[in-house]
Amino acid sequence: MTQRQFLRVRAVRAEQGSGTGVFAFFLYGADISRIADISRIRRDEQELKGFQRREIKDHVKEITAFLDSGPVLFPNAIILALSPEIEFASARGRAPGNLCEVGDAGTLSIPIYPEGHRAAWIVDGQQRTLALASAENKTIAVPLIGFVSDEVSTQREQFILVNKSRKLPTGLIDELLPEVGVLLPRNLAARQLPSELCNALNTDPNSPFHQLIKRESDPKDKGGIVSDNALIETMKASLKTAAGALGQYKHNGDGNCPSSEHLAQLAA
């Protein structure tokens, strides 16, 4: 009889709900796909199976490019549903004084099975998991949260609850982009410069758009009448090609930048 193989990691165990075990631990990114399956939504003789959407290849490529860009900070936790087959052994030893007794530290053992029969299922983070598996650096330490349940109904419930949260407003992201110095995914990087130009249009007293652009940080009663998103999209398109009105200024590095008045004319 073949002995079962396990992946063993340090973990902290707590309980939620009606005694459901919840674990917090770290794995190398490449190891996630060794223990967890992606349960894709499908129908089998009218019965609904799984819950995950299809792979979004462009999104996976963007995350992979970010992971391959150098030493990166990637603290986004991936959520797993764990089979009751997992094993947990509490750590021995004397606990330090004044310890906050929220969780129990120990060793979590997860059985390793072939694809399609694994003892864990990804509830949130499938695109990140696929990117981590493709990344050149296979030793990125990734945080994971796992709850014990092999009931598909519970997994679907958590999938819906995790993904139903309201997305960040586009205006908030746009306004924050000029303040971010790390390598950004391509779709966000393309909005970074237009957002900074939008700041110039809104703050320069000589600009025809001075204090007329609605930005996320502005008080609601400020009276902005021009959507920053409309201007950003216009300037993004203009910067995309050398034939665009702003394209001639991109990467020229000679300080010959358009004035706020000129920007206003180009965006009009």
Structural commentary:
The protein has 268 residues and is of the alpha/beta class. The protein folds into two domains: 158 residues, no CATH class; 98 residues, no CATH class. 30% of the residues lie in helices and 23% in strands. The chain is built from eight helices and twelve strands. It has an eight-stranded mixed beta sheet with strand order 3-9-6-10-2-1-8-7. A two-stranded antiparallel ribbon has the order 4-5. Strand 4 and strand 5 form a beta hairpin. The mean pLDDT is 82.
Topology overview:
Layout: E1 6-16, E2 20-28, H1 32-35, E3 36-37, E4 42-44, E5 47-49, H2 57-67, E6 78-82, E7 87-90, E8 104-111, E9 120-124, H3 126-134, E10 141-148, H4 152-163, H5 170-176, H6 186-203, E11 213-214, E12 226-227, H7 228-239, H8 260-267
Parallel strand pairs: 3-9, 6-10, 11-12
Antiparallel strand pairs: 1-2, 1-8, 2-10, 4-5, 6-9, 7-8
Helix pairs in contact: 2-3, 6-7
Name the shape in a single word. Answer: elongated
**Count of DSSP H/I helices:** 8
Quickly count the domains. 2
Oligomer: single chain
Overall strand count: 12
Beta content comes to 15-25%
Percent helix among the residues?
25-40%
Label the structural class.
alpha/beta
- Widest sheet, order of strands: 3-9-6-10-2-1-8-7
Write the H/E string, N to C: EEHEEEHEEEEHEHHHEEHH
- Mean pLDDT, nearest integer? 82
Distance between the termini: 75 Å
Poorly predicted ranges = none
Global Rg: 25 Å
Q: What can be said about the biggest beta sheet?
A: 8 strands, mixed
